[in-house]
């Protein structure tokens, strides 16, 4: 599936803020002190591990915002699977500018590529089942849009972007209100006809209550594959089933084989390791 890039309007503030954070109050003291103002060079980014690339637009924008005269040439595209030592992009421009933009460009590219790579690995692990791999709202503050984009690049799907997207009744909502059915009834009456209702259940008895109350989606929290298979049978196609909790590379295949529709994985955005990519000087121009 082609990757739809994020509009510049959605990424520019993040890149500008990150550059400003890095430049501080005095700019790039090292490059200003040791690199001649008129020196122009070419640098190239290469992978140091295999993975899936995401975030090239942010990397390119980092160089452009520091110095519009930089020329950014892509050798791959977001969504491409790359091998170690593969060239990702080349940039030519004033050497001071290249060095100033380097860390911001790589921070975005390595982080988002790490998320895309981890997602692709989980998607591969459930191949042959109907389960889709989904993210959560456990994202880095300020980077949710970018991290959820990287999940899509890796072949996953997005859960809620924000609290306003849908109603998700969780354990604390149920505890405060006094029951699954009561919470769903209140959500149905007050949430609006356009809003889906999902409810998190910990037991099969709660699941039966949720189904009787008419939940659109049920989150099956921390259930083992045997319980999940029974839960899918209880739902019988009347609602979307989502497995959550305890999901990793070793457990995800068995979870998917239970027949659930979605498997949500919080660590994809909050703990996925980066894809190691380095930027190296090639030559003076």
UniProtKB/TrEMBL annotation:
PANTHER family to which the protein is assigned, alphabetical: NICOTINATE-NUCLEOTIDE PYROPHOSPHORYLASE [CARBOXYLATING] (PTHR32179:SF3)
Gene Ontology biological-process annotations: NAD+ biosynthetic process; quinolinate catabolic process
Signal peptide range in chain numbering: none
Subunit-structure text: Hexamer formed by 3 homodimers.
Parts forming coiled coils: none
Known role: Involved in the catabolism of quinolinic acid (QA).
Documented EC number(s): 2.4.2.19
Quinolinate phosphoribosyl transferase N-terminal domain boundaries: 28-113
UniProt GO molecular function: nicotinate-nucleotide diphosphorylase (carboxylating) activity
Primary enzyme class: transferase
Organism: Paracoccus caeni
Pathway entry: Cofactor biosynthesis; NAD(+) biosynthesis; nicotinate D-ribonucleotide from quinolinate: step 1/1
Family affiliation: Belongs to the NadC/ModD family.
Catalytic activity, reaction form: nicotinate beta-D-ribonucleotide + CO2 + diphosphate = quinolinate + 5-phospho-alpha-D-ribose 1-diphosphate + 2 H(+)
Record domain Quinolinate phosphoribosyl transferase C-terminal: where: 115-280
Taxon lineage: Bacteria, Pseudomonadati, Pseudomonadota, Alphaproteobacteria, Rhodobacterales
Name by which UniProt lists this protein: Probable nicotinate-nucleotide pyrophosphorylase [carboxylating]
Keywords carried by this UniProt record: Glycosyltransferase, Pyridine nucleotide biosynthesis, Transferase
Family annotation (Pfam families): QRPTase_C, QRPTase_N
Gene Ontology cellular-component annotations: cytoplasm
């Amino acid at each position: 599936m082609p990757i739809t890039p994020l509009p510049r309007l959605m990424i520019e503030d993040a890149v500008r803020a990150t550059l400003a954070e890095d430049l501080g109050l005095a700019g790039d003291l090292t490059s200003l002190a040791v690199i001649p103002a008129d020196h122009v060079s070419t640098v190239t980014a290469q992978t140091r591990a295999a993975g899936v690339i995401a975030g090239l637009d942010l990397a390119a924008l980092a160089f452009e915002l520091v110095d519009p005269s930089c020329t950014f040439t892509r050798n791959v595209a977001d969504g491409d699977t790359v091998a170690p030592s593969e060239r990702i992009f080349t940039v030519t421009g004033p050497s001071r500018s290249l060095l100033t933009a380097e860390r911001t460009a790589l921070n975005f590219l390595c982080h988002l590529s790490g998320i895309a790579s981890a997602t692709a690995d989980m998607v591969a692990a459930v191949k042959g089942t109907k389960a889709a791999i989904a993210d959560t709202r456990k994202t880095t503050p300020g980077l949710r849009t970018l991290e959820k984009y990287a999940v899509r690049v890796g072949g996953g799907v997005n859960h809620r972007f924000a609290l306003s997207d849908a109603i998700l009744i969780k354990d604390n909502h149920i505890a405060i209100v006094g029951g699954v059915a009561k919470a769903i009834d209140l959500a149905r009456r007050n949430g609006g006809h356009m809003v889906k209702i999902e409810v998190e259940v910990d037991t099969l008895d709660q699941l039966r209550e949720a189904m009787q109350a008419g939940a659109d989606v049920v989150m099956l929290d921390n259930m083992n594959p045997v319980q999940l298979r029974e839960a899918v049978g209880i739902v019988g196609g009347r609602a979307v089933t989502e497995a959550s909790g305890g999901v990793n590379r070793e457990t995800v295949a068995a979870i998917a084989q239970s027949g659930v529709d979605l498997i949500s994985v919080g660590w994809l955005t909050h703990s996925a390791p980066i894809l190691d990519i380095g930027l190296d000087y090639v030559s003076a121009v």
